[in-house]
Structure formats: structure tokens, C-alpha cells
TrEMBL record, chain A:
Biological source species: Streptomyces sioyaensis
Protein name (database record): ABC transporter permease
UniProt-annotated location(s): Cell membrane
Pfam families named among the record's database cross-references: BPD_transp_2 (PF02653)
GO molecular function: transmembrane transporter activity
Region (Disordered): 1-24
From TrEMBL, chain B:
Name of the protein this chain belongs to: Sugar ABC transporter ATP-binding protein
A Pfam family per the record: ABC_tran
Biased composition, class Low complexity, residue ranges: 509-538
UniProt GO MF annotations: ATP binding; ATP hydrolysis activity
ABC transporter domain residues: 12-246, 260-501
Top-level taxonomic group: Bacteria
Stretches for region Disordered: 497-538
UniProtKB keywords: ATP-binding, Nucleotide-binding, Repeat, Transport
Amino acid sequence: MTETASPPATRRPGTAAPRRRPRVGPGRWRDLSLVPVIFVLGVIGFIVSPAFLTGDNLIGVVQQSTELGLLVLGEALILISGRMDLSLESTIGLAPVLALWLVTPAHGARFAGLGLLPSWTAVPLCLAVGAAVGATNGFLILTLRVNGFIATLGMLTMLRGLQVGISEGRSIGDVPDSFAYLGKADWLGIPAAVWICLALFALGGAALGCLRHGRALYAVGGNPEAARAAGIRVDRLTWTVLTLGGVLAAFAGILYTGHYGAVSASQGNGWIFQVFAAAVIGGIGLKGGRGTLFGALTGVLTLQLVINVMTLAGVPPLWTQFLNGLIIIIALVISRFTSGEKQD
Amino acid sequence: MGAETGERPAAVHAEGIVKRYGPTVALDGARLTVRPGEAHALVGRNGAGKSTLVSVLTGMARPDAGRVTFDGAPAPAWGDTAAWRRRVACVHQRSMTVPELTVAENLYLGRFPGGRTIRWRALRERARALLAEYGVEADPAARIKDLGVEQRQFVEIARALSCGARLLVLDEPTARLDARGIARLFGKLRELRDQGVAFLFISHHLQEVHELCDTVTVFRDARHVLTAPVPGLAEDALVAAMTGEEAAAARQPRAGARTVREAVLQTEGLAVDGHFAPLDLTVRGGEVVGLAGGAAGGGTAIGQTLAGLRAPDGGRITVCGRPVRTGSVPHALDAGIGYVPEDRHREGLVPGRSVAENATLTVTGRLGPLGTVLPSRTREFARRMIAALDIRTTGPGQPVSGLSGGNQQKVVVARALARDPAVLVAVRPTNGVDVRSKEALLGVVREVADRGSGAVIVSDELDDLRICDRVLAVFHGRVTAEFAAGWHDHELVAAMEGMTGTGGPDGPPDTGRTAAPDTGRTAAPARPATDGTEGTAP
């Protein structure tokens, strides 16, 4: 399908008036609305602590952004196509645990697994678990047509419980090298996770901008009926996106596990709030059909910078939760007015 | 003429009403007078300003200019809902009841009698008394959702009148009813009229106007055209007033000696249970075929089935001799069926996205190699479309929600034409667009056909059907009559209403208008079935 279509020549004499060139509207800059916020946060960080503007600190911030970033990437795609998936935060913990359970030998380690498969299969297994979770969500939402919010909320709770049950509530420290590599390695002096995350965001952005299925996501999220009438296979596409979201969450689980060298029982617990906050602050519409991945990425960076600056400023730990929520709300209000759009 | 009221002041008198919505003038110096105890019909085409006038008369919209008086007294202040309700009662086209609440609760919604606490027994008693007063048989304790459409409507009427108004506005009240329901509604309305209630009755169906009303007012293009007593008014004159002389003059039979080309679209026994009976349709290249009928009479379902949005229960579709897999939009598109959906907001446009994206939604496969969609090529394609269809926009990047209705519709048509379809299926293509855009859109359809494609227009708008080479009247899912170009308005209107077409059903004229528009949802039409009134395939 590479032939170029040309519109039918319905031009009539007299209607061929030359059109003004379109001006670059404010819409072009909507994606950049958080950039000044990030800049201001940088200045605040510089004032608060001399440790802020050091390579180690900044790399730390970026590294910590990767796992959240991948979840936001998945959630952003799902939100753009007009759905939501809350279970991502459980997938990030469950997928590594299930994969390790299948490959860890039954004896000789602190964590008794099944040892069914060789240890090199841990990474593909983990991704497959993510895909399975996403596909299950798709089945619930698209085939059974149950409410997506509650269905994925149920999945969130169920999968968290499954993880706790399998790991017996403990952290799993025996991680195969292949599994830990990506989270630990440095490429060109910067963590590999950062490169991968950036590459995936770039890939996703390019797909949304320039691939027909990517463009179709906006149509599906913006008006599924119209998308269907235009010949887009709405259900198939939504299913794909939900599965992709699960895979990305599982991949985030791999990076996170590698980074810390263990899977904690609460890995990802409570992240979904930050995921949604970052997406919405970054301009992704909760009703679908709106937003860009670049915006979502700036949303992630903003949240992580805020947390970093708070830590450096020595905020008493008992107050961090309060401030965290407060700052998310402030960021939400700021982005609502810098972008000039209602976030409904 | 309108201000002359005899001995009693008019129940409602409006004059010089101007209402604009953005650049659209919805009412332009409109006037209307309803005398006490009169049944007054308000008719006009879509977009004539009827609904806007209703909004103004019921205090829901504030006119930009003009004066409204009730019984000679000026209208209540804008926003004083209670005062408006005492003046005028309104039954809206869409049900304004809360389905999960009981009849009694709905009757007193927002104005529960008594103090702070609700005394349920007393409330039900009052409701019972109120319903009895208007002769409505409904259990006050029943939930609204358990009531039939008709009873629900009676409850709405009772509620509307219970505020003390002696003027009742009914906005297309028969649209939701079947024939028996309509008969009972009319019986009820006649009773009320005998009690001195005046009506403003809005309908598309001239038969109903003749049956019920004393006086008729015609609106066209946001203006008052005619007010006349109904008895003695010829239907032709009424239709002429609604459609306008200039439209009648512009109607030219298409050149009959057109080269006969290959059939581009054929259906054999195509049927959807409960929507339309087996349909054998042949559309030739260069031909525009009209399917005339109300939105719910089966035409829309035919359009959706052709476009692949709806899977038929039987039958085949072939395009240019090749069979098309039914019930699949991608297959229909690939076969060369372009589709303009009935409701551009629901099925046509993705509101937040740009003109370019909307216009190219069906051709994304052709805008770059390997599944890519190159933005430059999208813009280029959209620019050509914008020029070809004369879409008024600031550029391909403008969000489509910022366009006027007519231009939005052009974008939808652009989307359908983007793949250069062998046959264009358009359901009410000029739905809710202004006169100028209407001409342009119909011109586009005509040109598509003139270049050798086929076109099907499903519509109940005479203007849409006027460009067709032949028109099939569809009534309750069946083709009841066929007209060659050059038909007379009244013939076609009669056929669309299920009145005697050419050899159609022969029901008595008073029940001739039996449209049970939602044959798919409600029970079968109540009248003993004549040829034209069966909604489902046998």
C-alpha cells in the first residue's frame, strides 16, 4: 500500500482561491508547557542544595525516572486510545517475581522457585507475563465489556496478592545476571536504562506521529464510533495497546529489579497515582485522544525533580507525603494554565 | 397580522425575535402568535429555527432582540424558571424524566410540596390527584423506566401543565410514539384543548397538523413565512411554503438521456431484522439514487449496512461485480464504498484532532511507505481536499471542532471521498448545515456521480433527494414506491409518510401517518399491517 492517493478533482472553477499559509498555533507549544517548570525546579534545586547540580545527582534523578517513565509511556498510549489500566503498578512487581519463580531452582537458594526453565529465559518470561496481563485486561474490557476502571482495579489487587503469595511476602535477591544486566549497566557513562527509556519514548513518539496505527490511536480515543466508521479496527488496536502497556510495565520491572538487585514485595506499590499524575500533568487527556509522549516525558521528569529537590532540601520524612500530594496538585494547576486547556 | 388578537390577549405573542449562535443566525425577526385555546402548529424544515423559537418561548434561550408576551403581559425575567413554568409548559423532544425515580417523584422533581421532609404518602396522593386531573392512568409509585413511552409522555405533559400554564409546547411529541400512541396522544390533546389549553405543536408530519391543529405557522431559514388557518389550506401550499419557491424553481429534472453504465453497487436480498426488509438495489455509475424516508424508517440502517457498520441478517452486496464481505468497514472501504454517516458528531469526526487528520482518516495506508503516515503528505492531501471541497478553515492543522457545521460536514465528506470510492453512501448529508453549504455538499455528490461513480443518498430532506436521478421511498423498512427525477414534492412526502404511494398501502387518511419511527425498538406497528407498515423482514 505505497501508492499515493490523490483526492478526487472536485475543484470547481472559482473555488480555487489561494489559501493563507497556516500559522503556527499555540497548539504547537502545548507540549513544551512543562519545560519552564522543569527549568524553575532546576533553579530552586540549585539554590536549595549545592549537591543538586552534580552529575551524580542528575543521573540519579534520570535513572529513577526510567521505571516510572516506562509505566507512564504504557499508560499514555492506553489513555490516548481512550482506556485506562490501573494494573500496571502490579505488573511491574508481579512479572519479575513470576519469571524468577519459574527459573530459580527449588533448592539451594533463599527463595525456593520451581526451576522449570533455564535462567536465560527470565527476561522473555517476564515480558510474556506482562503481555498476558495486558491481554487479560483486553479480554475483560473488550470481550466481556465490563467497566475498565474496576476491572483493572481488580487486576491491580489480584496481581499484587499473587505476587505476595508467590514470594511469600519477601524480597527476592537471587537475580540471574541476564535479568539484572540492563538495570545495572552503564553505556557511555550513563545508565543503560536511561538510553533504553529515551529510545522507547522516541520510538513511541514516532509511531504516534508517523505510523498509521499510531495516528489511529488518537482517532480511537477521540471518537471510537468515527474511527470505526472510517475503517479502523478499534478493538484490535485497543487490545494491542493494552498488551503493549503490560509489556512495558514488565520491562520497567526488569529495569527496576536490575537497578536494586532484588524484587521487593512492594515493588511498584502505589505508583499508579504518580503514573496518572505524570501523564495528566504532561498533557495526556484522561478521556482519550489527546496528548503527546513528549509531554508525558516532561511530566515524569517534573515529578521526579520535585521529589529530588524535596529530598535535598531536607524535608522531614513525615511531611513528604503531604508535600508530594500538594506539589502534584500545584503542578496540575500550573500545567492546566500554561497549556490553556481544560483537563477533563 | 400577528398582533391582532380579538377580545382576549394572545396566549403567547412573540415578535422581532433575533437569535444568533456565533456566526449562525438561528432566528431572524421571527414572530408567532398563539391565541388562547388554539392548537397551533409550527412547521418547517430542519434548521428553520423551530427549536430555537421553542427555547426562546420557554425561557431556555435568551433572544438577542425581540419581545415575548404571555396573555398580554411581558415575559418573565430571563432565568426566573419558576415564573416561566407558570406561563408556558413544554414537553421536549427528548424525555426529561429521571428513569430511576417514581412517577410521583418525577412529577414534583425540584419542587416537592411541604416542608423539609418528604412525606411520601402525601406526595403519592397528590401525584395521584394530579394524574387523575389530566386523565393519565399511571401508578404514582411506579418507576418511570417501567412505563411505556406514551405513558411517560403523558406524565411529562401532566407535570408540565401542573405549574399552572395554559400554554403547552410540544416539540415533536409523536417522534417517539407508534400509531396507537399517537392516536391516544391526540385524543388527550383534544381533551385538553376543550379545557382551554393552547398548544404550540411542532411536527415534521403534515398529516398530524391537519388532524389536530387550527392554525399553522411555517418557518423557513430562520424567518416566519406564513401563518394560516389549517382548514382549507392545501398541502401543496404548505409544502411550497416550507420548501420555498426558489427551491422549487431550482429543481430541474436531471437530463434523462444519461449514458447507462455498469452497475457499481448491487444488493440482493439485503436485510436486517427489525430494520429493513430484503432490499434489491442497483446503483449504476453516474447515477444518484435516493432512499427517501424518516431517519428511523430503515434508511439509516441500510446506509450503515452498506458501509459495513452493521452486519446484515441476510443478503449480498457487490461492488463493481465483486462481492463485499458484509459487516466489516475495512472490507467495505477496500471494495470502494465511501460512507458519510448520519450524525457527524457521533460517527463522523474526531473533535479534538485537526482537519487534516480527520480528512485522511480513511487513507492513512496511502500516505507513506511501510505503514507510515508522513505529516507532509497528510497536509498536502488535506490542502487539496480543502481546496476541492472549499472548506473554510485556517489550515489543515486547525482542530475540526473549530469549524462551522457546514464545514465540518465537508470534512466528513472529504473523508468519504478520500479513497475515490466507486460508490458514495451518504446518510442525511446535509443534516444541520446552512443553505449555502447544503448546495455545495449536494453539488459535490452530484459531481462524484458525474465522474462515473455511483451515489446513494439516504434522507428525508426533499432538497437532498432533488439531485437524485431516481428516488425510492422507504417506509418501515420497505421500498414502497419509486420516482423518476421530476417528482412532485407532495407525491414523495406522501410516500415517505406511508400514505398512498404509487400503488402503496391504502389506509384511511387519518391513520395514514403511522410512522412508528423506532420499529426496531418498540413493538410492531399497532395498525393491522398493510403492505407498507411492516417493519421487519418476513
